[in-house]
Structure formats: structure tokens, C-alpha cells
């Protein structure tokens, strides 16, 4: 339903139920509160005079796991990952406790996108630590605005790597706000 042009009220005149429905009810049904179908939804414009409701999605893996792989990979328990319907953008936050078994060794995680869009995990938006002390877990977080997404169902998955030696990861969490 398209937004109806405003109706001009004239003193001492009445308007019909059809006029009320067209000029008042139908316009109110095009507002963001009327479009919300659940709590915590956010209106996002999808075009001129068009909105869709989007909800943030989160996932967490608490298991402590390690890797010695120098390119982005899954751990024994992959993820966390979330699948969500996006428009051309999504704002993604992720956090992780990270350490390396060797002092001054790089430990890192990033996010890959699959589904309607294919974007590999990348150092351009990596979360990293170069711990001065071996086996000292530190919590880090990162945010990145993914643009150029193909609208549709996209899956955002955390991936892990080290510069050398063995990295440990725990308390892995991702939050995606589809736009």
C-alpha cells in the first residue's frame, strides 16, 4: 500500500469511513510501528518510501579451542555463525578471548560471509593480539560495516588464524545487525 495524499479537513463537514480508512488508517499502517511484527526490530529503508524491519542476531561459543593454522579456518567447534536476511549492508560486531602459547606471536580472528554473498575472512577487518606474555588470554572486540552485500540470506561466521605457534580462542561471540 502506498502512502495516501493528505485529506483536507473542512469545518463542520463529515467524512466517510472509506475516506478515514484511505487517508488516516492506511497511512498509519505504513509507519514503522505498524510494520513491526516483534520486539527489538529496527526499521531500515529498502527504497523510496519503503521500509523493512530487521532484528539483530547473536551467537556465542564458549568452548576454548586452539589452532596453529596461518590462514583463516574453523576451529573444532566452528563459528559462532548467524544467518540473517540482509539488504546491501550489515553491521557486525565480534569478540573473543585470545592468546598464543608463545610471547609476541600474532593471534587473530575475522568474519567470513557466505550465502547470497561470498566474502572470505580478511585481515582488513581482523581482530588480533600480539601478546607480550605467552598463554595470557585477553578479551578483544571489533566492529565492521559490510557493504556491497547481495540482499538475501547471508551467513556471518567467525574464522581463526595465527601468525605462528598455537593460538587459543574462547568466549567467541558475534552480533549482526542487518541493514
Low-confidence stretches: none
CATH-derived topology of the largest domain: Jelly Rolls
Tell the overall outline. elongated
**CATH secondary-structure class of the largest domain:** Mainly Beta
Question: How many H/I helical runs?
Answer: 2
| Rg from Cα | 23 Å
Number of domains: 2
Measured as a percent range, the helix fraction is: under 10%
Strand count, sense and closure of the main sheet?
Answer: 5 strands, antiparallel
Strand content: over 45%
**What's the overall average pLDDT, rounded?**
88
Structural class: mainly beta
How many strand segments? 11
Q: Order of SSEs, N→C?
A: HHEEEEEEEEEEE
Mind telling me which CATH architecture of the largest domain this is?
Answer: Sandwich
Distance from N terminus to C terminus (CA atoms, Å) equals 22 Å
Describe it for me?
With 179 residues, this protein is mainly beta. The protein has 2 domains: 1-30, no CATH class; 53-178, Sandwich (Jelly Rolls). Helices cover 9% and strands 46% of the residues. It contains 2 helices and 11 strands, in the order H-H-E-E-E-E-E-E-E-E-E-E-E. It has helices at 17-28, 32-35; strands spanning 42-47, 50-54, 57-61, 65-67, 81-86, 90-100, 106-115, 127-130, 138-146, 152-162, 167-178. The strands form 3 sheets. Strands 3, 4, 6, 9 and 11 form a 5-stranded antiparallel sheet that branches. A 4-stranded antiparallel sheet has the order 5-10-7-8, with no helix packed on it. The longest helix is centred in the N-terminal third of the chain and has 12 residues, at 17-28. It is elongated, with a radius of gyration of 23 Å. The relative contact order is 0.25. The mean pLDDT is 88.
Amino acid at each position: 500500500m502506498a502512502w495516501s495524499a493528505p485529506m483536507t479537513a473542512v469545518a463542520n463537514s463529515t467524512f466517510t469511513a472509506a475516506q478515514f480508512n484511505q487517508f488516516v488508517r492506511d497511512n498509519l499502517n505504513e509507519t514503522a510501528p505498524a510494520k513491526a511484527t516483534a520486539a527489538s526490530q529496527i526499521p531500515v529503508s529498502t527504497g523510496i518510501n519503503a521500509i523493512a524491519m530487521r532484528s539483530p542476531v547473536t551467537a556465542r561459543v564458549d568452548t576454548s579451542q586452539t589452532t596453529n593454522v596461518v590462514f583463516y579456518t574453523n576451529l573444532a567447534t566452528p563459528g559462532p555463525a548467524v544467518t540473517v536476511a540482509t539488504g546491501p549492508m550489515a553491521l557486525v560486531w565480534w569478540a573473543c578471548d585470545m592468546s598464543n602459547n608463545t610471547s609476541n606471536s600474532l593471534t587473530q580472528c575475522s568474519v567470513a560471509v557466505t550465502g547470497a554473498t561470498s566474502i572470505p575472512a580478511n585481515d582488513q577487518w581482523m581482530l588480533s593480539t600480539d601478546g607480550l606474555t605467552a598463554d595470557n588470554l585477553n578479551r578483544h572486540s571489533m566492529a565492521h560495516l559490510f557493504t556491497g552485500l547481495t540482499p538475501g540470506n547471508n551467513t556471518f561466521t567467525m574464522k581463526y588464524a595465527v601468525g605462528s605457534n598455537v593460538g587459543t580462542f574462547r568466549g567467541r561471540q558475534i552480533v549482526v545487525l542487518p541493514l
